[in-house]
Amino acid sequence: MRQNPEDGVPRERSVPSTQSTMKAPPYSRPGVFRAPIGLAHKHVQSLLAGWPLRRALLRSGAHALLTAARPEVLDCGDDVRLLGYRSPQPAHSRGLVIMLHGWEGSAGANYVLSVGGALYEAGFDVFRLNFRDHGETHGLNRELFHSCRIDEVVNAVKRITERAPATRTFLIGHSLGGNFALRVAVRANSVALNLARTIAICPVLRPHSTMRALEEGLWVYRRYFLQRWRRSLMAKAAKFPELYDFGDLRRFSTLTATTDFFVRCYTSFPDLDAYLRGYDITGPVLADLRVPTRLIAAADDPVIPIVDLDAVAASRALEITVVPRGGHCGFLESYSLRSWLDRAVLDELLQCA
Q: Is the pTM of this model over 0.85?
């Protein structure tokens, strides 16, 4: 991957020999994002984006979105139910935006409120979906969440669109939600799901690489996800004590050990490697993508190694924007902690709406 010395944006990508028959998708220019002095470091961007004190600012900015929100429980088939929040416009709507959060996030995550609030103010209906066992929904389903449960998310997106059909429907996901969004978009034609555009922000590309980055990178991320996951599992066990008794989860000191245990004991996958490959979107996975899609990534993302973009299959529907800085789902462009993503996503959708 070559770097342009003027702005640090990768312009060309060498495709590994195993993918030699695939032409890498083109990069677009990074737009106007520039991290201010003092906020440019990848960890500063990533950690401040999820800072609890930032939430008060975001809730204020998303006041209209939250005031209009109404909960909906979706029947996703096979006795699966997912909870989300629909915020319809009081009058004319530019279209419907469905938002997918990241792992151990929720419909109320900072990045969801930030982008969702901006889109609602601009005239879009917004539906914020919770994945299984996220956002206090542990009692809705007996079985545990895992990242390969794509069918229920596809069905949830279909139910959302069927309940209140829109002139245009857009799908936006952050981090693991971006990974889900891309997989939903690949399946859209086969399930008669009409999506006008998909935007995946810092999506998980190769789960093996993300697991390694979390284990070997700054300890704060590893501790954050371990603590959040442990609390989530304890909440699940409290709802279904007849099914789950996990014991002291602190006996697993790493994400790898914890995931390996749950894959072997609570999924149909034979081992950790098979599970991680189950939601990998490198290789040919996106080759059949037909929904116009924008993938936004940061070259300095401490959680999603940028080199994995080299192994993403080309599609005429896929455009990739790589910003030199931004961390993981950060892209903070001011000391008021506003995110450039709000404008970037809005501009993208306005081109279609």
A: yes
